[in-house]
């Protein structure tokens, strides 16, 4: 299923319970579509949300509104039913709003091009807290709800953990030679995986964030711009060369970079947007096929302690000791080796 958006898209998000998908365009427009099995997607809304590009899109308030962020430094809430403006916060950041993520039912976080992160109360429409954790653009954020911690990656080559209970930056990693572009939490909270500009994946053990515990090269020949957790053992990656892969390629957007990935509410569809100006909805049953068979699953040794919460006695640096696998990461053997190491 393919939707011609007409312009470059920067972000995509699915409604939490209905067959609706939203996308933000370089033109500043917000598009909303209804999709379904056996029917063509239907455009429901086209809203001029921002004067500059619409970089970040998220459904909020149980899907009643869509929140968008822009380089014009504003955040806009749009009603899903009518397309009318619910609220707009001008000058929400001092720099371009680049990322947006849901936290709790009533809070969201935004990150800007100057490395600033803000937490917002969507009901009170006010900023709860500000974290000055980075020196360059916020590339991605993911939320650990059980510990109320926000894990953030940046173009400055570092990862940070912001504690929402203490309202402090709990820790920040050492600088990597690569821009960190994407992040997911795996293994029931025990591992954090970051995608980088060079295509290397960096693995961190929860509680030991100063330096990565391992590096995996040759899994992608180009930058890993988007990561999405399929389950606790498998990641879907979108790369600059246009491939969508679970280590091995599973789908593609010609040779255009993959900008963002998202799941539908029922995980039946994988949504992807690319520089080819299309939104594609992939049926995961068709894509995965035999990937879900028991023989294709790696044996994982869950030896990490669930009690780790802060940096203490970090392991030796893995710099200069990169682990390499044969090939370019497009065979199941490499995938199994990689995910087996997630449990180390």
Automatic annotation (TrEMBL):
InterPro entries named among the record's database cross-references: WD40/YVTN_repeat-like_dom_sf, WD40_repeat_CS, WD40_repeat_dom_sf, WD40_rpt, WDR55, WDR55/POC1
Localization per Swiss-Prot or TrEMBL: Nucleus
SUPFAM superfamilies: WD40 repeat-like
Keywords linked to the UniProt accession: Developmental protein, Nucleus, Repeat, WD repeat
Biased composition, class Acidic residues, residue ranges: 301-310
The keyword Nucleus is assigned to this record: yes
Region named Disordered: 292-344
Residue ranges of WD repeats: 251-285
UniProt GO cellular component terms: nucleus
Family that this chain belongs to: Belongs to the WD repeat WDR55 family.
Protein name, entry field: WD repeat-containing protein 55
């Amino acid at each position: 299923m393919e939707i011609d958006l007409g312009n470059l898209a920067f972000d995509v998000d699915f409604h939490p319970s209905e067959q609706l998908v939203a996308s933000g365009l370089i033109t500043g427009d917000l598009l909303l579509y209804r999709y379904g099995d056996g029917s063509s997607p239907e455009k429901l809304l086209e809203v001029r949300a921002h004067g500059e590009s619409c970089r970040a899109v998220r459904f909020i308030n149980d899907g009643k509104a869509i929140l968008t962020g822009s380089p014009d430094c504003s955040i806009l809430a749009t009603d899903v039913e009518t397309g009318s403006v619910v609220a707009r916060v001008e000058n929400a950041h001092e720099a371009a709003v680049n990322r947006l993520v849901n936290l709790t039912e009533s809070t969201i976080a935004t990150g800007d091009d100057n490395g600033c992160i803000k937490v917002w109360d969507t009901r009170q429409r006010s900023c709860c807290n500000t974290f000055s954790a980075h020196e360059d653009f916020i590339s991605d954020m993911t939320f650990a709800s059980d510990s109320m911690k926000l894990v953030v990656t940046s173009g400055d080559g570092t990862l940070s953990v912001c504690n929402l209970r203490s309202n402090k930056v709990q820790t920040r990693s050492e600088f990597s030679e690569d821009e960190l572009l994407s992040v997911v939490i795996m293994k029931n909270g025990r591992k954090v995986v970051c995608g980088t500009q060079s295509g290397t994946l960096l693995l961190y053990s929860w509680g030991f964030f100063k330096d990565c515990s391992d590096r995996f090269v040759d899994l992608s020949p180009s930058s890993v711009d988007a990561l999405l957790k399929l389950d606790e053992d498998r990641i879907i990656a979108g790369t600059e060369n246009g491939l969508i892969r679970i280590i091995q390629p599973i789908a593609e957007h010609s040779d255009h970079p993959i900008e963002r990935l998202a799941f539908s509410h029922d995980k039946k569809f994988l949504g992807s947007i690319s520089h080819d100006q299309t939104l594609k909805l992939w049926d995961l049953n068709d894509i995965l096929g035999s990937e879900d068979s028991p023989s294709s699953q790696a044996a994982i040794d869950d030896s990490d302690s669930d009690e780790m919460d802060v940096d203490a006695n970090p392991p030796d640096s893995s710099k200069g000791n990169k682990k390499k696998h044969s090939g370019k990461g497009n065979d199941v053997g490499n995938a199994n080796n990689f995910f087996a190491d997630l449990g180390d």
